[in-house]
Amino acid sequence: MDSYSAAPEKVAGPPNERVRRGETPISPDDDPFYQAPLGYEHADPGTVLRSRDVEIGFLGLVSQRVKATQLLYRTTNLHEGPEVAVTTVLVPAHRESDVAYPVLSYQCAIDAVASRCFPSYAMRRGARPIGAFVQAEYLLVIAALAEGWAVCVPDHEGCHGMWGAPVEPGYRILDGLRAAMRCERLNLSSSAPVGLWGYSGGGLASAWAAEVCERYAPELNVVGAVLGSPVGDPGSVARRLNGSFFAGLAALMISALTQVFPGAQDVVDRHATEEGKLLLDKLQTMTTAQALWQFRHVDIGSYVDMTADELWDLPEVRHIFDETKLGKSRPSSPVLIVQAVHDEIISVDDVDALAAEYQRIGASVTYHRDGLCGHLLLHPLSAPMTLRWLRDRFTNRPVDEHKTRTMWPTILNPSTYLGMAKLGLITAKVVLGQSVERQPLSTTDAR
């Protein structure tokens, strides 16, 4: 164990703690647990700075019978500077002490700046972040736990909600895994096989982790990454969503990127109307659903002194979108990309280009290009296939070279419905607050 973790008395701030059952959680903005302790920047990335057990609640209401531990750890930002982040780690209730079971890092589609949308807060009992998509994704977190795997759910946007920032989500994900494996109370093996999984905004974060892993955390045994509808080209997404029902997603990303790139803030200062500046500030406090509803069908060009197309073509904006585009490095582990052809949010052309680029630079890519599902439906329906693919990576099965590109719609696969039946049973237990024993969805998927 590193010396920093071994000497908690030197850490300024609350010690390791156990949150009292039924206690209403404090917002991350006000919770001392999230504050960086004195001297943390001298610790190695992945060092555990604080830990606590927390109570999980489905939709913030129904107490869950799961063991959940939160870790504050040292990580790295886009500019290679030190920062802190939080991950929530769930471990199976029953385990064989001599078995190094797999560890999955599940990246939620946070897609917001407001801290009440962070998984570490939104999954806790008593939290009421209405409109945070994290609460629905909890069902897939539990499905992964039911496989018998430990699951890390990091706040991959960091403590300041940097939605859309390049590279640094990967650092936070990998350092969260390092922290989980170093935390003695979790008793995870440092050599355990590791998987990554996320969809949409979570797929984007997972892709960054897959791209930087070989350079940043080569000691982690990452064996596979599932990138569900990753936002491979944020610039293309911004153009596509502007004026659509989902324009709020682009507005949220712009609001966050003004904090990441000084050039973005300069563009706002020079070209945004007073109303536009006020709305960008307001977006900092909105949940994802709130932003979607308020900004539905909005033309972002109406809040600047030019058209939206002229805005996207500004040199400063083109630079930002170039920096946030995926495909800069080769994922060292096999990758499964899942994408709907008729996705109304993420263009299949952008994901086609990302898959082709990964293959060009030598990555092992399996691409499920679904011909019937839309963006929202594909994630749950592809869960059995995804979990089976991850199970194969965890058990060292070779990637099937004959299935590197699949077109058969998930919705027409009979095994999908067997998996959905199991997921329905898991959902029922979650809603009733019952313990979810081992019940793998992965065994329902046909080969």
TrEMBL record:
Xref: PANTHER family: LIPASE 5, PTHR34853
Pfam families registered for this protein in UniProt: LIP
GO terms classed as biological process: lipid catabolic process
Stretches the record annotates as Disordered: 1-30
UniProt-recorded name of the protein: Secretory lipase
Annotated signal peptide: none
Record GO terms (molecular function): triacylglycerol lipase activity
Biological source species: Mycolicibacterium rhodesiae (strain NBB3) (Mycobacterium rhodesiae)
Domain of life: Bacteria
